[in-house]
Amino acid sequence: MHAFLSLTTAFTLVSAPTPMAAPLQQPVWLCKPGSTADFCETTALNATVVNPGGATSVEPFERPQQRPVDCFYVYPTVNLLPESTPPTAEDEEETVTLMQAGRLTQHCRMFAPMYRQAPLTSYVIGGLGLPTDFETGYQDVKQAFAHYWNNDNLDPATGKRRGVVFLGHSQGAAVVARLLQEEFDGKPEKSDQLVAAYIMGTDVKVPMDATSGGGNDPGATFQHIPSCERPNPSAPIPTGCVVAFSAYDMPAADADKAALGRTTNLTHRVLCSSPSALLTGARHTDTLPMRAYMPTRQLLRGNILSPSGALTLLFGDYRPTTYPTGYATYPGQVTGRCTWATGTKGRVDWLQVDGLENIKKNHTALGLHVMDFNVDAGGIGDLVAAQAATWTAGQGH
Predict the structure, then answer these.
(1) What does the pLDDT look like over 307-316, one tens digit per residue?
(2) Which UniProt keyword terms apply here (predicted)?
(3) Most buried residue among 15, 348, 363, 378 by CB atoms closer than 10 A?
């Protein structure tokens, strides 16, 4: 767990010069439409609905044959040791991909590359002042995206490029942020295809009085890609923008202990987006219902000794339910709102989550980090669907 804590200090280092391994001969895919072993398309992802009184029912999960846009997903830090070359899929990568991005296959074709990420052990080494190799993993993802863009993004049915939703968490979120900076920010030939970017569990910084840097703001993560905003219910669903948050269940008095969501530059803030607010046109700071979908032991391939399977060490005190479905969901029991506090270490912005305390305890420093994509997976899914529909309608598809 100490190594896991160390990773929170390294998210912004992905762009720093670091040692790099030889490039892969070709991309390696966890999930790619048309591949013979695409578990993103074949895994059953039904959910058990757990009502407040304890009664349960099964919510079926279906993937339509045709989906209007694509998703490009980069998974978080899950490897304890360095990846092989070429990387090979293990339970860690497969289960975290399913728990974070699996349900979104209802709305998009899923492209998920493998990459030789900086493993947990390297964060300990980095804490000793030795270089940590983030560059190899980034270049693996960049290579995979180039392959996707050149070979899969052009829709054979329409002859037009397809819209893309980017998804990333933790180290994967930092990789996605850099990819967008280099390939999309201020580049309309690609940014026009950006449906949205979900950059979760890392710090996306925006000016206090604007949604992006505007072209010349070194303190902002993006200069021209704005944060997703919907000021009222009559405003359109925003597209071409960023959704980001770090989830916590903590009082404002504990903000100094948080490892994520912090900035010491008080002309900027760390972006907190409420998916439920974007769906309804409410304020991000309004307390709104959220629909958590928490991974079960079955999805995580766990057992009595390792309830979260290969992710047990990372998931700490999380105890997955034993329902015979992929997820458990708790309607009417979880709420969330964006909030912030200023302490002795700067300003902290986070998504305050209430109602999950009996399911996943808040970690003092990391909060609900490992479940960022799950605390409102229902809202994220509905928002991706709405953004895909809005973007597609605007393209005349």
Answers:
(1) 999 999 999 9
(2) Signal
(3) 348
